[in-house]
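Appendix B. One record, verbatim.
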Amino acid sequence: MGIRLQKEVDKSIFVDAIPVQNREKAFSIKDLYPQAVKAFVTDQKTMDANFAFLTTTLAKLHTEIYEPKYNTTYGFDVPIDYGGGFVDYISYYTVDWSGIMNEFRNVYSNNANYIPRVNAGLSQKKANVYTWQVAFDLDFIELEKMKKLTISKSIKQIYEDIITAGWDLFCQKVAYTGMPTSYGLFNNPNVLVTTIDNTAIEATKRGFDGLDDTVVVSFFNGIFELCLTETGMNYDFIPDTILVPSFVGSDLVSRYSALYTSTLYDFLLEHSLASSFNKGKKVNINFEIRPALDTLGTTNKGRIVAYRKNKSYVRMDMPYPIQHFITLPNIKDMCYTSAFVGQVSEIQMPYNDSNPGEFGPVTYWDFTK
């Protein structure tokens, strides 16, 4: 009896759920799921208001933004001082000693006819500072449109990336070759230039290509030997950074010899004069390829730059690194205007700030062919 009553109850519930006028008719989705049908079919307002959005979702959207790729290297080659705020120029002082006592005049005894005198001259030096400014506009309407897109970056961030790239490329230009009124690390007229005699190579070759390994090793050891000779064996001046043209770098990593089990590049890192005789303190030599050096030099055949990467010898200042300065609404053009400002100085080489024929921590080595 309990089972029979249960069946009757189930039947009555099922039947009562169907309107009387439809009990003898076929059932439709609209009858059984009126709310779902309303959401997907009859809600015309939702479709009209978001027609463009509904259309774009028919395509698979990758959220990653594919932007131009660029690279700068000046930050690896030049020590940089940051901060200080907006300035007109960078100032520093150099000292020039005169009347230094030699091995005879510093000996004083009863038979001396004079007392040695020394003097020190203090000179103020100035380095130019360049102000870099840029602005961009974001239209009110475009910002509203972007709200409907789901991407990995905002339009504001995209513009800021463009500005950062422009700033980095500008700083690299200032660091390497300077502006029209200044010089950079690669072309300072006060740096001692030594010629590399590679006239023995074939006409179709460049750099060391065609010269024996012993000649190449002798050349790089000659850089360190010149430094030690000119500074009275002052190991603080030994270059630890050697920037080479791209064709020299390619040559060094391509050479193998029976005398060593690695490339010539690796051999120079471990067995150069700088790493062998330094009072037990090994100098870590760093060779880097810089394509900007391919066409530099006195004959435009390529230049090698050797120096000690130290702020006392090579330095560049950024008193005001690039950053967002202000954003204001522009009613006239119906947009927001954002301004970015940065300041960077020209390269400073205090110990190369003299006659070009004198030795300094930075040296140039130019190919003749």
